[in-house]
Request: fold
Amino acid sequence: MSTWQFWIDRGGTFTDIVARDPDGKLSTHKLLSENPERYKDAAIAGIKSILGIALDAPIPPNLIDAVKMGTTVATNALLERKGDRTLLLVNKGFADALRIGNQARPRLFDLALTLPTMLYEQVAEIQGRVGVDGTEIESLDETQARETLAKAKAAGINACAIVLMHAWKYPEHERRLAELAREAGFTQVSASHAVSPLLRLVPRGDTTVVDAYLSPILRRYVDQVASELTGTRLYFMQSNGGLTEAHSFQGKDAILSGPAGGIVGAARTAGMAGFDRIIGFDMGG
Reply:
């Protein structure tokens, strides 16, 4: 091996780095995840420190083979409600479907329920309906859709989530709305048939809204890191514990990116030590 490899856990408080040099020697580094007076991004700053490169100098291309990272960027944005302003498009009569949810009551006898705030800022009902068998019951009102999208865009909203009945199997209306949203200038368009093509409107809708809400902030972070790593393979850990290439990393797959790394690491370490039953404990900052 003639190049470096890096494994990074970018948490909300600290960023931890494990590096392997071209000779196979391992080293570690720890630094604050947020320290704007010294560096723009902790992961890149840590890599430069290990390589002995000045923080304001570029990383030479082809010096690093791969960087594999878990991050709580999406997790914290969701918890702190710092995602992008989002418009939700639904069928006529379903504006409150995600707010009503599935009516699950974790505490059955509570008289006053405190519901979480919705991630979308605006919701609009669009004329058009496809039946359970794929029959078009009502044609899509593209004029209304264009007007709705233009109004939301003028208000400064740049993310759009599209969730229609039966679209998991018959996505034609969703596809057309997605085209109209992109034509209107929305930089993030998440359609449920592409994000989560599954039965049941509410969970499919929740996943789609999360994707629209978080993907922009995640994309900005991923692009920032990738811009500093020319010629380097960049991977991010998903909520399912698997790695994906940077360009495929989406908001819906990033919520548990950081915590998933702890679970995978604990299981692998325990297995190497001969244990098949363990209790893991992962404490953040």
Observations:
- Residues 83-213 form one domain.
- The mean pLDDT is 94.
- The longest strand covers residues 64-71.
